[in-house]
Amino acid sequence: MSPLKIKKGATSHSAYNLRSSYGDEVERHTLAVIVANEPGVLARVIGLFSGRGYNIESLTVAEVDHEGHRSRITIVTSGKPQIITQIKSQLSRIVPVHQVHDLTVEGPTVERELALLKVAGSGDHRIEAIRLADIFRANVVDSTLESFVFEITGTPEKIDAFADLMRPLGLQEVARTGVAALARGSEAKTS
């Protein structure tokens, strides 16, 4: 019998060479992108995502350095690990992009979102809406005889849970800011 020959670069299907499928799971990542604050930069970043079929779950952007004319774009996206790596690499190549940080892998972060929810109702539904708002620490920012507008901040999951409870009580409209995130600790990840 001759020994089994495997071509260079070929993969053996032996029980000792099993590949892990863990890397093929879709992961959610929060990216902090520091960019030049100039016209068209946001469109270029968004164009990268839409042109390649990547999904953006949340997007926030604001100027964070007035003297240096820099803005921070916080993007929540999801994909397989190789897709996330491609996104970060392609973002880094856009000329007005100064820094790209994957906050999900760089350490613990604090993520918050703000939402406004309009709830219309009367009687018991109105009382229950106020009770739930108190439990979730949501503030009433507008009130009429027919409706409330609640303001709530917290994790996206907290806002989802609050909205789910408000639906049967007369939830009519929701406006969300998207996730704002910072790395925990004293060291600045972006500037």
Automatic annotation (TrEMBL):
InterPro entries: Acetalactate_synth_ssu, Acetolactate_synth/TF_NikR_C, Acetolactate_synth_ssu_C, ACT-like_dom_sf, ACT_dom, AHAS_ACT, AHAS_small-like_ACT
GO cellular component: cytosol
Protein name: Acetolactate synthase small subunit
Any single biological process term in GO: L-valine biosynthetic process
Catalytic activity: 2 pyruvate + H(+) = (2S)-2-acetolactate + CO2
Gene3D superfamilies named in the record: 3.30.70.260, ACT-like. Chain A, domain 2
Transmembrane segments: none
EC class (word): transferase
Similarity remark: Belongs to the acetolactate synthase small subunit family.
Key words of the record: Amino-acid biosynthesis, Branched-chain amino acid biosynthesis, Transferase
GO MF entries: acetolactate synthase activity; acetolactate synthase regulator activity
Segments forming domain ACT: 30-105
Organism of derivation: Cognatiyoonia sediminum
Pathway(s) this gene product operates in, as recorded in its UniProt entry: Amino-acid biosynthesis; L-valine biosynthesis; L-valine from pyruvate: step 1/4; Amino-acid biosynthesis; L-isoleucine biosynthesis; L-isoleucine from 2-oxobutanoate: step 1/4
EC number: 2.2.1.6
Pfam families given in the database record: ACT_AHAS_ss, ALS_ss_C
